[in-house]
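Render Glucose-methanol-choline oxidoreductase in 3D.
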Amino acid sequence: ATRLSLAPPGSHAVSAGIAVLNPVSRGSVTINSSNPFDSPILDAGFLQSEVDVFTGREAIKKVLKLFNAPTWRDYIIAPIEDLENLSDEELDEHIRNSASTAFHLIGTAAMSARDARYGVVDPDLLVKGASRLRIIDGSVFLFVVSGHTQAATYTIAERG
């Protein structure tokens, strides 16, 4: 369950959002039926790699250090949630309980070389093993781009 800390209604707040832009964890989409109307099995693989959890933890520590700088002293009265006194293990648990996606899921039909045994589409965005069928969206990315996926998706759309 995702837990989000929010300021009380009517109050003023400053916040920081942390994003692991280049996750190591990988998920999968598996077709479990020959019926095209059946839902696939989705495994986001979210935070399976300790590298992703470590990255999130260190980012939280950096944000806490930033907000403890003298510049903020007159603006920050108290944190909404006390993360400063948590151990690394407790921060990791906090990350696992509160992290969520940024709703920019990609890579479920990754592009690869025509002769590669992995990947779903070739560099021309044609589905391997199919005739005259293209996939032209963010699902063809092999890795997460270091930024918003929209610009890269536009590039794929222009190419297709």
